[in-house]
Hints:
The complex is a heterodimer of chains A (141) and B (110). Chain A is mainly alpha-helical.
Amino acid sequence: MEDGAYGPSSLAALVELDRVRRAVRLRSRWYGRFLLVLGAGTLAYYVAVNAAAPATPPTLVAVSLGWTAFVTLLARWARAQPVTARGIRRLRLRVMTLYFGLVAATVVLSGTVWHDTPGRWALGLVPALPCLVGAWVVLRR
Amino acid sequence: MNASGSHPRHRLDELIHAPVRFSIMATLASAEQAEFGFVRDLIEVSDSVLSKQMSLLEAAGYVAVRKGYVGKRPRTWLSLTTLGRSAFRDHVAVLQEIASTVPHPATEPA
Lengths: 141, 110
């Protein structure tokens, strides 16, 4: 190939690079939707626990089973996604560390300091917040 | 891979420069990992073509292949190695250098 012929083929390669980058970025937005659903589900769980108080054992079992099913389905859906854009892994590590830390902290607070307080469902907003912020970061890309 | 010469094309990685392999590398460079079927559909090739090109890139140490399951379905995950990411970055830098020398059609004299 002549030296001059490399120009058009280089331009075509850069156009292709842009095309696949955009496709990967769009197809990786699943993680933003994952975080939105996790945040909303977490808040719903706190509301359900609050609404069920004082909980009878069957209610506790039903709420726990509902939560386990929700998390299992969500994790399975996430595992089935075909692509993860660069940079998501670091974000995921940060969001999940924060999320589980805040869930643990709010469960402890809910069972001790705010035990039987009517508005303690609002504690669910605390772990939901990093999910919503993470979703915003991913979906605005 | 590289012959000596002043034109930037001498610094292109011939393994990456082939169109299908370039598309594979470009896809994986944008991703942490991608599933075989996703790459196949995105770059519009058959399973056999993708497998063949992946073998070449894997042999060069540019791509890592991981097999696993999602439920009972077997899946193959592809990702770039550190070497592959670095080689692709260098290759794109050369492409940009060459592209920058191409006159823009709008600026061409009539």
